[in-house]
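User: Hi! I'm a student and our assignment asks us to look at how structure tokens line up with a sequence. Could you show me two examples?

Assistant: Happy to help. In each example below, the sequence comes first and the structure tokens follow. Example one:
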Amino acid sequence: MPVATAISQNHEQILLDIVRVLPAARAEQLVDFARFLEAQILSEELLQEEDIVEIERDNARWDALLASDDSQALLNQLADEALAEHRAGRTKPMAFSKNGRIEPG
């Protein structure tokens, strides 16, 4: 039996043992977290597959889109709405982790 399979089966059993004793709401949180981790892996894999030419091409498309008058008007409108919400006290502070991820402030 390959080592990777044995380690995987061990982790699988540990997770099963944990989820069996959790309350339903906590088990749902565990599933959500597992899906979050899965999405991170997929995102990392996509970034690794994308070469610099594709990234530069995509950036150029975004630059062209954001340079249009319509886009600038929409961005100004969104900024005005965000400022109005902030002035009305409907915003919350946020912080960033050491690796740059958004955390509750």
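Example two works the same way, sequence first and then tokens:
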Amino acid sequence: MNLFETAAYAADAGGPQGDAGLINLLFLAGFVLIFYFMLWRPQSKRRKEHQALMAGLQKGDEIVTAGGVVGTINKVEEGFVKVQVAGNVEMRFQKSAIGATLPKGTIKSLEES
């Protein structure tokens, strides 16, 4: 027996498996569906809701900005709104910075507490 002799045995060459390609395609389709339903669709829905919010802003609406400033809209301009945050204090915000509208009377209830 020779210590340096190596034997190479050929493995049985299996035929090409047609099922493996189909399974890989199904996994890819599954990942695409998961991506769509968990990421793209909710983000698109949230974007549409925010655009509807910005389009529906009117004078007198009580709002809260993304930074947490609460106030009442005094004037709606093209891309901005003027918001009264205190007695005689008005601030100008971009419409995209408006986080949500509040129910009427929210600011008054905040001032009382």
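Here is something you could point out in your write-up. The longest strand covers residues 70-76.
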